[in-house]
Amino acid sequence: MRHLVYESPGRYVWQEADDPALADSRGAVVRPVAVAACDLDVAVARGHAPLPPGYAQGHEGIAEVVDVGADVATVRKGQLVVVPFQLSCGACRECRRGMTGSCTSVPPLASYGLGPLAGLDAGGLLADAVAVPFADAMLVALPEGVDPIAAASTSDNAPDGWRAVGPYAAELDWLDPADRRVLITGGLSVGLYAAATAVALGAQVDYVDTDPGRLTIAQALGATVHDRPDPDRGWTPYPVTVSTSARPQTLVRTIRATWPGGVCTDTGIYYGGGVELPLLAMYTSGIRFVTGRVNARAALPEVLGLIQGGLDLRPVVETVVDWADAPEAWAELRGKTVVVRS
Description:
- There is one protein chain.
- With 342 residues, the protein is of the alpha/beta class.
- It is built from 12 helices and 15 strands.
- Strands 3, 4, 5, 6, 7, 14 and 15 form a 7-stranded mixed beta sheet that branches.
- The two termini are 17 Å apart.
């Protein structure tokens, strides 16, 4: 079979690889049909993330099941499924408590399409076929009528946006309508998915960014947009804030815009090292600060539930290209791109 590999800066090529096979009776083999570029893929393509060449690409996508082991009960051949980017068994202690990104049945950080970062590199989804070791635990059927292109990032970035707002829906519901406010400082697609989630949950969303394309998308999703790099110091504080830009100053400004007892989630990856946080101010005002990787499989049912309820994630997708054009498209990544094949 063929899979797409990051060969050198600015160059992605199809390479031959061994055909995947069922690992055991619990596994499946899938054929990816819609693969999205994660925000990290964009950062690598633009030289902003220090990942070395030589690894298979693609860790967000929808696939068709082409083979299943004898003990697989929840998915069947021919079904379209979401393939979470992290490998998880569904049975260990960490999986049972929702920490599917820290499954103890596989090496730490085991995942698709993140070769140098993955404790176990499971290959990439930009491939003719992919093996899934724990089919019942990992694969989730794509709901009937849901567009695979719109849902391609439900493997990673869409759950990452959801977890910044969704867990606090009950807190927002408890507030007076005028106080159900969410601040999002944007950066690539995760901030847009957070905005979409917050709007779907009935919050008033202020989205801060300087990228014209993302501002247009956020507005289409129902957010009020602000063309500026950081939140204004004079803004009324928010119960829920989200920082996705990976800029230290913006993170600090976002924390300071969080009201006492509120929660600020940061989804950024800071390759440059430490970030100085206003810990005394956070302590005295009781701000909860959340960072770390998303547990994509655990969040996936919530995201799909919102989609079934009418949430349209299609506006976040900026570019759709044919499978044959994946090498050129991946080299030119600037935003959410989805590669599709029939």
